[in-house]
Amino acid sequence: MSRTGVVVVTYNSAEVIDACLDSCASLPVVVVDNASHDGTIEHVRSRSEVQLIANPANLGFAAAVNQGVAALGTEFALLLNPDVCLRTPVEALAAACAQTGAGAATGTLLNASGSPQRGFNVRRFPTPASLSFEVLGLNRLFPWNPVNRRYRCLDFDYSAGGEIEQPPGAFLMFRRDVWEQLGGFDTQFHPLWFEDVDFTKRARSAGIKIVFVPSVVATHRGGHAVGQLDWATRELYWYASLLKYASKHFRPYALRVLSAAVMLGSVLRAVAGTTQMRSFKPISVYAKVVRLAILCMFSGRVQEPGVLPGYSKAVG
């Protein structure tokens, strides 16, 4: 019996799930579907060797991961996005996870062109400075600034293995006992974003090493789940998860500074968005983001965007 199994969380993933599952043919796989309505469930059910957990509602990425790992029961769990396809065996990831002091590992994620997904595949943990630069738009305007270069590891050598900080949840293996020790993925990051960052941050804080193994390769289409969210929903949930992460891992003073940066950046984005879209919708959306940041600044907690006045919670 394999010591390694795969967990794939799907939401309207019919377009990509077959290629992903084909690439995992030699491994036990659990697919956790978050209430798809595009035929994803039918695609998965046609494969008798794949275990399907079909949630009647969208429980979010973190909760679905926890369901999948619990059902899998293997010593090592490989978390894959449905738009990721394995190109090599993954035994070297399991070997890396089993090293003394280690507990998680990732390999090389390639674009369709065959180049590494630099800036996404390997990152350092976000800091108040890097997230402030992000929300103020400085990383987009000046991507080679030293704060962004360090955060996104833009000078990382993808031919060399070794210890890293933040791998992506799109392609992440971890030991089951590490998942149990950490209490699984934190479901407050709903429906998505920053749950993988939080998981690996807690692992590193517990003294668990995370290893990059360049010889294990997968391709990643990217943006599959995010692309299904409308712009307003995407903005609100991304900022909410960012502030949740900051409230959990940053000191109170740093949280207040970041909250102020979110407010300033939201004003700038509202002005720019109103001009570009010729609509007042960006003002409405970023007003809600500002409210989230104000509440976080003074209470240290983040109110769910779904309960803000005038906003209905999205299923995606």
Characterise the protein shown here.
- The chain is α/β, with parallel strands linked by helices and 316 residues long.
- It has 2 domains: 182 residues, Spore Coat Polysaccharide Biosynthesis Protein SpsA, Chain A; 78 residues, no CATH class.
- It contains 12 helices and 9 strands.
- Helix 10 runs antiparallel to helix 11.
Task: Summarize the helices and strands and which ones pair or pack.
Layout (H helix, E strand, L loop, with lengths): L3 E7 L6 H7 L5 E6 L5 H6 L4 E6 L5 H12 L3 E5 L3 E3 L4 H7 L4 E9 L17 H8 L2 H4 L4 H6 L10 E3 L6 E5 H6 L13 H11 L3 E12 L10 H19 L2 H26 L3 H19 L17
Parallel strand pairs: 1-2, 1-4, 2-3, 6-9
Antiparallel strand pairs: 4-8, 5-9, 6-8, 7-9
Helix pairs in contact: 5-11, 10-11, 10-12, 11-12
Task: Provide a quick synopsis of the model.
The protein has 316 residues and is an alpha/beta fold. The protein has 12 helices and 9 strands.
Q: Based on the structure given, which CATH architecture of the largest domain is correct?
A: Alpha-Beta Complex
Number of strand elements: 9
The proportion of residues forming helix, as a percent range, comes to: 40-55%
Fold-level CATH name of the largest domain: Spore Coat Polysaccharide Biosynthesis Protein SpsA, Chain A
What percentage of the residues does DSSP assign to strands (E)?
A: 15-25%
Can you say what the CATH homologous superfamily of the largest domain is?
Spore Coat Polysaccharide Biosynthesis Protein SpsA, Chain A
Q: C-alpha Rg, in Å?
A: 19 Å
Task: Report the sheet with the most strands, covering strand number, pairing sense and barrel closure.
Answer: 9 strands, mixed
Tally of structural domains: 2
Q: What is the CATH first-level class name of the largest domain?
A: Alpha Beta
The shape is globular
Mean pLDDT: 93
Distance between the termini: 35 Å
Number of helices: 12
In sequence order, what are the helices and strands, one letter per element?
A: EHEHEHEEHEHHHEEHHEHHH
